[in-house]
Amino acid sequence: MVIFIFGINLLSIGHMRKKDLPDKKTISLMTFKDMGVTEGKIRLFFESKKPSAIFFRYSLFAGFLMLMAGIAMNILFLFGRGKILPNKIPEKKSVSWGIMDIARVAIIVIFSGYIFGTVGSFILKPPHFNMDVNLRMMFGTFFIDIIAGAVILYFVLVKYREKLSSLGIAFESFYKNVLSGIAAYIFIMPILILVLIVSMLFLDAIGYKPPTQPVFDMFFEEKRSSVILFLTIFVSIFGPIIEEIFFRGFLYNAVKKRFGALLGMLLSGALFSVLHTNIVGFLPIMILGVLMAFLYEITGSLIASISIHILHNSIIVGFVFFIKELLR
After folding, report:
1. CB–CB of 116/11 below 8 Å?
2. Cα–Cα distance between 287 and 266 in angstroms, integer?
3. 8 backbone dihedrals φ, ψ, rounded to 5°
4. Which of 17, 73, 138, 177 is placed for a possible disulfide with 303 were both Cys, Cβ 3.0 to 4.6 Å?
5. What is the pTM of this model?
6. Alpha carbon of 213 to those of 26, 87, 95, 277, 278: distances in Å?
7. 94 vs 211, which has greater pLDDT?
């Protein structure tokens, strides 16, 4: 989701004129109390027979089971009964690209984003096209992701003549890696929740107010089903795939080549988190980023990390839809 959030924030500079800016507090800055989400309202929703209420009841139960399983896995691990590392870790040769190539790709992508933001602010609106701010930002972010993926593939396949497998794009043991990713996410879930709660309590105590998140505001404000469907697919599936190719396949390999695996995991995880531009989720997202780099390191494939990323983003999107249902 980070590239999506980064793109939305980047493109919003060029797309949002002063009159487009909301005068009131945006949804992503509101508390449950501000939105009118109360315990009674949640109870009434779950007691109703609406299809959405039934779906979210089962989803909540599944989430509870995942959390309990995660706690059990952590207890087993703490008492030395859990297994983290596989019997055999695949050997990976050092990649040809380096940190300077990461900088080159970043410059190209950022430059492309600003070009699109500038040009799109004039072209992607009447009389040329009838696109509102949300559609322009969506289209622009999709464009940025395509550019990012294409530039990475150019560097790897054309400039350095490496194979896709050097990026971790390999499908051996596909289902095993998917299950490994899901199991790893369940294991880390209690830790993520605990760290997030502690971070929120600390930042609330010092009076920190997080910045708005345009991507979540877009989910709440958008009424067109086709646009919501595109947003859901983009954030839940397409975005995670592109991000894993960049952060784990491309960036992590370059940092690991220069500083080693451990520092590579920490630095790539930190950068992954920083680009979410929200200090509230910095530690949880960094932990998640380190976990995904670790899985890539021990499996030699991006499948496990992509599975985690898709699962995590899907849970977040599902929570957004849940709140949206409560506000109807």
Report:
1. yes
2. 9
3. -60, -45
4. 177
5. 0.85
6. 9, 42, 35, 9, 9
7. 94
3-class SS of residue 106:
helix
Q: How far apart are the first and last CA of the chain?
A: 26
Residue spans per domain, the chain: 39-95+169-326
- pLDDT category at 15 given cuts 50, 70, 90 is very low
Q: Determine the length of the chain.
A: 328
Contacting residues for 282 by C-beta, under 8 A, at least 6 apart: 199, 273, 274, 276
Answer positive or negative: Cα dihedral of 136, 137, 142, 143: positive
Contact status, residue 313 vs residue 276, Cβ threshold 8 Å = no
Is 17 a residue whose pLDDT tops 50?
Answer: no
71 vs 209, more confident: 71
DSSP one-letter code for 19: G
Cα gap 118→135, rounded to integer Å: 15
For residue 110, give both structure tokens.
Answer: 């950022």
Backbone dihedral angles phi then psi of residue 93, each to the nearest 5 degrees:
-75, 155
- pLDDT tens per residue across span 148-193: 999 999 999 999 999 999 999 989 889 999 999 999 999 999 999 9
Helix runs in the chain, H state only: 2-15, 32-35, 39-47, 51-78, 99-123, 133-153, 174-205, 214-221, 225-233, 239-244, 253-259, 261-274, 282-299, 303-326
- Per-residue buried b or exposed e for 237-259, using 16+ beta carbons within 10 Å of the residue's own CB: ebbbbbbbbbbbbbbbbbbbbee
**CA 38 to chain CA mean position, Å:** 28
Q: What is the spatial distance between Cα 66 and Cα 75, in angstroms, rounded to a whole number?
A: 14
* Nearest residue to 169 (alpha-carbon basis) of 71, 296, 266: 296
Nearest to 221 by CA among 53, 3, 7, 8: 8
What's the CA gap between 137 and 153, in Å, rounded?
Answer: 24
Q: What is the pLDDT of residue 40?
A: 82
